[in-house]
Amino acid sequence: VTFGNDDVPNIADSLTNHAQVFTVNDVSFTMINVDGGSFIMGATEEQSSDADNDEYPTHLVTLSDYAIGETEVTTELWNAVMYGTSVDDEEKQIPINSIWWHDCQDFIQKLNELTGQTFSLPTEAQWEFAARGGNLSKGYKYSGSNNIRDIAWYDNNSNDKTHPVAQKQPNELGLYDMSGNVSEWCQDSYSGNYYSSSPQYNPQGPSSGSFRVLRGGSWLSDAQ
Fold first, then answer.
1. In angstroms, rounded to a whole number, what is the distance separating the alpha carbons of residues 135 and 127?
2. What pLDDT is attached to residue 48?
């Protein structure tokens, strides 16, 4: 979930200049501010042969400031927003999963109504820049490390299940689970050849399409 910096509220529970805390029905979540910048999007050198054909060609992208959730949306937050209800303790920090893109739009609409803010799913470019560590990127293969076990739940260590958020180490921006646990919806429609014609500044994805972009891998994904 993202919001533009023009929408960042001046609230008393602001952590630092780089984070904001919001509370909905007694459930709090943190948004990490991402300073805008430029990066090479797509199958850069550190991905080597693990990249897919639709991650070419690499191309320069420049993004404005934005913010993105510190963790995947938890079951606790989902239920607080969607139903105003609580969940069992063992489920609270499990990322919400098995939901459609349109379910996310319903969640965001209700979240905006409850907070008075303008949240959205991240664009694919915003997601990738954040996963790479933004302007603090150290060029890791995965989001926060060259060793996937440091930062991700995937098929070799997940025991075939999702795990509570933020149990692995974060990336350079302090974001968790961007290379594993559950895959993450982006706002963009999907097109296999979009990278060839993507705008350089704040790309929004194809103007139409029957599919939506998923990023990040999950507990049942292999390292690729």
1. 13
2. 84
The whole-number pLDDT of residue 14 equals 38
Indicate the length of the chain as a whole number: 224
Residue 195 DSSP label: G
Average model confidence (pLDDT) across the chain: 92
The radius of gyration computed from the CA coordinates of the chain, to the nearest angstrom, equals: 17
CB distance 40 to 58 below 8 Å: yes
CB-based burial label for 167 (10 Å; 0-12, 13-18, 19+): exposed
Q: Record the pTM.
A: 0.92
How many other C-beta atoms lie within 10 A of the C-beta of residue 174?
15
Closest CA to 139 of 35, 34, 18, 39: 39
CB 190 within 8 A of CB 215: no
Question: Per residue in 151-187, pLDDT tens?
Answer: 999 999 999 999 999 999 999 999 999 999 999 999 9
Q: Report the Cα 105 to chain-centroid distance in Å.
A: 15
